[in-house]
Design brief:
Blueprint lengths: L13 E6 L2 E6 L10 H15 L6 E6 L8 E3 L4 H10 L3 H17 L5 E5 L2 E3 L1 H4 L6 E4 L4 E3 L13 H4 L7 H8 L5 H6 L5 E2 L5 H10 L5 H9 L15 H5 L4 H9 L5 H10 L4 H14 L4 H17 L7 H11 L17 H7 L16
Parallel strand pairs: 2-3, 3-5, 4-6, 5-7, 6-8, 7-9
Antiparallel strand pairs: 1-2
C-alpha cells in the first residue's frame, strides 16, 4: 500500500490515504482555512501524477480538514501572506507558485480518472482552482463559493477567466468584479457545482469514503449520489445582472448601477465595486470577456502573463496586489491605497500592457499545456 503514496514535501499540510480504489487528499491547514502553500501544490501534483499511472487507483477525492467548533473550509485560496513576503523580497518562489499552481489546475481539468471535489464550507480563489475541474463537485449548506481577487488588487485566476466566462449571461462578470460569495443553489444553477449533500450527512459520507468498501470508481460515485438531495432554491438572482454587467466597461457598469434608482441590490453592488481596485477591475473585465473564446490552456497562459505583470509591471513597491494584500492580511487596516483611486483615472494603455506576454511563445512557462 505504501508505494501508492509517493514521498510528500508539505510537512503534513497535505494528507494522503488510499481506501480500496480511492485516493483521498486532505488539505490540512485548518488554521489557515486550508489555503494552498507552494509545498501543498507540489504534493497535490505528485499525488495526482502518481495515481494517474497506477491502475489500483480508479478515483480521487479532495477535501479540507475540519476546524473544531468552527464552520468548515474546503480551501480559502492561496497563501497570500507568502505572496506578499515573496514579492517584497524578490523571492523566485513567487513565480514558481503561480506556474506550478496553474499547472495543477490544468492537471485537474484534464485528469484521466474521476476527480471529486468535496466542497464543504469556504471555497475561494485557489480553492475554486482545485475544484472547478472536478468530474463531480459536491456542495453543502455551508458552501460559499467566491473569486474575491479584485479586493486584493488581483484578478480571478486559477482558470477563473475561463470557468467564470462559462456562466450564463453576464453572471461571470458580476462574480469576477464584485467577488460576491454564492451558495450551493446559486453555484449549481450557474454551472459552478454539481450536487448537494446536506451537512448532517457529511460525517457518514466521509467515513464511508475513508473506511467503507470502495472497489470501483462507480461505487465511489454511488456512495456520494445515494446521499444527494435537491439543492436549496437559488436565491432570486437580481434581474439587473445582465443589464448592468453586460456594459462595455467598468465605468459603464458603475454608471448603469448608479442609474438604477432605489434598487437596493444595485446600490450595494455599486458600493462594493467602489472598494475594489479600479485598475484590476478593468483587467478582470477584459479577462472574462476574452475567456469566452479561449481554451482553458490558453486562458491559463494568459493568466500567467497577467499575474507576472501584477507583481512586476510596476515593481513590488507599486503593485496593486502587494498593496491589496497588505491592507487585508498584513496591516489589516482594510484601507488599500489603490493607484489610481478612481475608475475614471484608469489608463487604457496600462490595462493593455497587462495583456502583452513577457515571454515569447516558445519560452512561456506554460507553453506545453494542451
Amino acid at each position: 500500500m505504501n508505494d501508492l503514496i509517493p514521498p510528500l514535501v508539505s510537512d503534513g499540510q497535505i494528507l494522503a490515504e488510499v481506501n480500496g480504489c480511492l485516493g483521498l487528499i486532505t488539505l490540512n491547514r485548518p488554521q489557515a482555512l486550508n489555503a494552498l502553500s507552494l509545498a501543498m501544490v507540489r504534493d497535490m501534483v505528485a499525488l495526482l501524477t502518481h495515481w494517474a499511472a497506477r491502475p489500483e487507483i480508479q478515483a480521487v477525492a479532495v477535501l479540507g480538514a475540519g476546524r473544531e467548533g468552527k464552520p468548515p473550509a474546503f480551501c480559502a485560496g492561496g497563501d497570500i501572506r507568502f505572496l506578499h513576503q515573496a514579492a517584497l523580497a524578490g523571492d523566485p518562489a513567487l513565480d514558481a507558485f503561480f506556474t506550478e499552481e496553474y499547472r495543477l489546475n490544468h492537471l485537474i481539468h484534464t485528469y484521466p480518472k474521476p476527480y471529486i471535489a468535496l466542497m464543504d464550507g469556504i471555497v475561494m480563489g485557489g480553492g475554486m482552482g482545485i475544484s472547478q475541474g472536478a468530474r463531480l463537485r459536491v456542495l453543502s449548506e455551508a458552501s460559499r463559493l467566491a473569486m474575491p481577487e479584485t479586493g486584493i488588487g488581483l484578478f480571478p485566476d486559477v482558470g477563473g477567466g475561463w470557468f467564470l466566462a462559462q456562466c450564463p449571461g453576464h453572471v461571470g462578470e458580476w462574480l469576477a468584479l464584485t467577488g460576491e460569495a454564492i451558495t450551493a443553489g446559486d453555484a449549481i444553477e450557474w454551472g459552478l457545482g454539481d450536487v448537494f449533500v446536506r451537512t448532517e450527512h457529511w460525517p457518514a459520507l466521509l467515513e464511508e469514503l475513508r473506511r467503507g468498501g470502495q472497489p470501483s470508481a462507480e461505487h465511489v460515485v454511488a456512495t456520494i449520489m445515494e446521499r444527494v438531495e435537491l439543492a436549496p432554491e437559488p436565491r432570486a438572482a437580481a434581474p439587473g445582472i445582465d443589464t448592468h454587467f453586460g456594459q462595455p466597461s467598468v465605468a459603464a457598469v458603475l454608471a448603469s448601477l448608479a442609474q438604477a434608482g432605489d434598487d437596493d441590490w444595485a446600490r450595494r453592488t455599486h458600493d462594493t465595486l467602489l472598494k475594489r481596485s479600479p485598475l484590476m477591475m478593468a483587467v478582470t473585465l477584459e479577462l472574462v470577456r476574452r475567456g469566452r473564446t479561449l481554451s482553458l490552456a490558453d486562458d491559463l497562459r494568459l493568466e500567467r502573463d497577467l499575474v507576472h505583470h501584477c507583481f512586476h509591471l510596476r515593481g513590488a513597491a507599486r503593485s496593486e496586489t502587494v498593496e491589496g494584500i497588505r491592507a487585508l492580511a498584513v496591516d489589516k487596516d482594510h484601507s488599500p491605497r489603490w493607484q489610481p483611486a478612481r475608475v475614471a483615472e484608469v489608463d487604457a494603455a496600462e490595462v493593455a500592457a497587462f495583456f502583452v506576454s513577457p515571454w515569447a511563445p516558445a519560452a512561456h512557462p506554460l507553453k506545453d499545456l494542451a
